[in-house]
């Protein structure tokens, strides 16, 4: 697998940046090659992409999601093998640092050649720039999901039903400037699936 890490500062509060990222079906608006994302439930999405003329479909599963701090995921089926984490760091009341780290398994000669040339790094960097433009131009998020998903939920029959203390709240658009907690780094404990979470040699 190939590791990609990119970071960008956005001129919105951490809550707004995080809430927007939870709106997975909006990803085609700023992610190159992403044609459609269908959210199946609170933890699973189905993706359709077309990159360098190659169409792929795959499913992702949220492994760890903590409001205003991080969202980590892995693929669980389809044509793509990857895992990653996006973290949100509060800089001040109106600025947030968004960091994206991904492990991706290139497929085919074209993708492997592109990976060797650093094309994946460039694409992720440009995606973050487009996210910055998307959220800053609006000035607020298009929606938000504030539920908690823990690594311990994986394989435990979790269906997205939260306890009263962390019940998910789907928020309407609107400016929210409350400071958020300082984010963990992409390498912090709990940000990545543990070996026990993996499904063997298939997608992780």
Strand neighbour order, sheet with most strands: 1-7-6-5-4-3-2
- What series of H and E elements makes up the topology? EHEEEEEEHHEE
Question: Mean pLDDT score, rounded?
Answer: 78
- How many β-strand runs? 9
- Cα-atom Rg, whole angstroms? 16 Å
From the N-terminal CA to the C-terminal CA, the straight-line distance is: 11 Å
Query: Regions with pLDDT < 50 over 5+ consecutive residues?
Result: 156-170, 172-204
Please state roughly what percent of the residues sit in beta strands, choosing from under 5%, 5-15%, 15-25%, 25-35%, 35-45% or over 45%.
25-35%
Supply the helix-strand structural class. Answer: alpha+beta
Anisotropy-based shape? globular
- What about the largest sheet? 7 strands, antiparallel
Give me the number of helical elements.
3
Q: Percent of residues in helical segments?
A: 10-25%
State the gist of this model:
The protein has 204 residues and is of the alpha+beta class.
What does this structure look like?
β4 and β5 (70-78) form a beta hairpin. The relative contact order is 0.25. It is built from 3 helices and 9 strands. With 204 residues, the protein is of the alpha+beta class.
Tags for this model:
alpha+beta, 204 residues, two-stranded antiparallel ribbon
Topology:
Elements: E1 2-10, H1 14-21, E2 34-39, E3 44-51, E4 54-66, E5 70-78, E6 82-92, E7 95-104, H2 108-116, H3 119-138, E8 144-145, E9 170-171
Antiparallel strand pairs: 1-7, 2-3, 3-4, 4-5, 5-6, 6-7, 8-9
